[in-house]
Write a structure and sequence with these properties.
With 251 residues, this protein is an alpha+beta fold. The chain has 3 domains: 36 residues, no CATH class; 138 residues, 2-Layer Sandwich (Zincin-like), CATH 3.30.2010.10; 31 residues, no CATH class. The strands form 7 sheets. A 3-stranded mixed β-sheet has the order 5-7-6. The radius of gyration is 26 Å and the shape is globular.
Length: 251
């Protein structure tokens, strides 16, 4: 795609792309001209991060009265977390020893409808709000969402329902929140991580080491009621005190 903009006193052609400006001599029918060419963008995660930062600012103004400090927004795959995103307190520090929280959005789920990505960001912003207020809204290594999370989330644009495994963790956008997002006229992210990517299939030129399969003698025991789990290196009999039931070993 290209377009032409004629300039009477111009002396060169300028081909403009998002990353490169090329200047070449150019003349057309005894008139000097500037020829503007548009090239496809190079793949980059920066537009995604910038977009998420802009969304954070919009949601901060609308739902939190601009009370939230800007965290470091990152893109990192879910790994074993099995989550669309997460919030971590004071994970980053600058040269002046100032600490910053982190909100991560998992890139393999950026192909969801943009409203759902917004819902994940808003969910993590609730955790940020509680952290700034000195409230601990999760336990069990951040997996189980307490009533404190539910109360704050419902005050800031989200509906919340309780799940058996993770407590008050299941959030959705309130109708008025969805209406606000529609006014932003957002476009879906056009770059997201390949969900089926395997580093073993795509890595070349590495310093390869033969890996022996790991063996483990640990056993996992789970409470059938609250799903609390523990590990032991030998066969044991252990009882969940909260539920007063004998925990079962998983195969």
């Amino acid at each position: 795609m290209c377009g032409e903009l004629f300039c009477g006193n111009g002396e060169e052609e300028i081909a403009i792309s998002d990353s490169i400006i090329v200047i070449e001599p150019f003349a057309r029918k005894n008139r000097r001209a500037i020829l503007v060419k548009t090239y496809p963008k190079e793949p980059s995660i920066m537009p995604i991060v910038n977009g998420l930062e802009l969304l954070f600012d919009k949601f901060n103004d609308k739902f939190f009265e601009s009370s939230l400090s800007r965290p470091v927004i990152t893109l990192s795959e879910e790994g074993r977390r099995r989550a669309f995103g997460w919030f971590i307190t004071e994970k980053w520090v600058d040269g002046k020893k100032v600490k910053y929280h982190e909100i991560n959005i998992c890139p393999e789920y950026l192909d969801r409808p943009i409203e759902e990505v917004c819902g994940t960001l808003l969910h993590e912003m609730v955790h940020l709000k509680n952290a700034q207020s000195g409230l601990k809204d999760c336990h069990r290594n951040g997996l189980y969402h307490t009533k404190k999370f539910q109360i704050c989330a419902e005050q800031h644009g989200l509906n919340v329902t309780k799940t058996t495994k993770h407590g008050w963790s299941d959030t959705s956008l309130k109708a008025e929140t969805l209406d606000f997002i529609k006014t932003l006229k957002l476009e879906a992210f056009d770059l997201f991580q390949n969900f089926n990517f395997s580093s073993d299939d795509n890595t070349e030129g590495g310093d390869e080491v033969e890996r022996k399969p790991k063996t483990s003698s640990s056993r996992k025991y789970v409470c059938s009621k609250c799903e609390l789990s523990i590990r032991a290196t030998k066969e044991v009999r252990v009882r969940c005190e909260d539920c007063d039931v004998l925990m079962q070993e998983l195969e």
